[in-house]
Amino acid sequence: MLSLxxxxxxxxxxxxxxxxxxxxxxxxxxxxxxLDNLLGxxxxxxxxSNGFFKTTVGRKSGKIYGLMQCRGDVSAENCANxxxxxxxxxxxxxxxxxxxxxxxxxxxxxxxxEHFFGVWDQSxxxxxxxxxxxxxxxxxxxxxxxxxxxxxxxxxxxxFHAAVLxxxxxxxxxxxxxxxxxxxxxxxxxxxxxxxxxFRTTIGNKRGxxxxxxxxxxxxxDYQFYSNIPxxxxxxxx
Length: 238
Prior knowledge:
By secondary structure, this protein is α+β, with helices and mostly antiparallel strands.
C-alpha cells in the first residue's frame, strides 16, 4: 500500500465484478487453454506497456478478447500486483463465465468471447459513502470542477487527467478521470459526460465518490488519493 504522508493512503480495493451467466463450454480444454494464455499475456505485458494492453487469443469461434488497464498514476509494480489480483478474482468468482469484468481501485480487467475493442460501453456504477455529505456551498463547485476534469481527460495522451480544487477554508478536493485507451477521444468525452449526468443526484452532495465503468471511470475525494502527478490547483469556477 502506498503511503502519502500527511494524506490518507490510497488502498487498492475490489470495487466491482461482473460475470455473464455460467456456460458449461468454459470447461472445455481449448477455452481454458486460451483463457489461461490470454490472462498470462495481460498480466505479463500490461504493466510494462504503460499500464494498458489488449490482445486476442484463439481462432474463429474460440477467440477470446482481453484488456487490462491500470489507473494512470499507479506504479508498474502496483499495476502488476493489481492485475494479478484481478485475474485471481476472475478465475475464482467467474470461472464458468465467458464475459467478465473486474474493477479494482487501481486497475480494470475485461475479457469476452465477443469483440468489444473500441466500442463505448455505457454500463457504470457509483460508489459513495451515504453519510459523508459535503458543505452545501461546495456542491456546485465540485460538479463544475469534475466537469472540467472530464473535459480535459480525453485531450490527454493517455486519456487520463487528475486535478485539485482549492476550496479555501473547506480544504481541497481531488479529482481524476480516465478512459480505456481502446475507445476514441470522442467516445471518451461522451462516456465521462454521461457518467456525470447519470449519477449527478447520487454523487452531487458527497465529499467523496467513485464511478467505475466499462469504458471510463472517475474519482473524487477530499484527500489526495493519487501519486506521482504534478498538479496545479484551481478554484473550480468558470
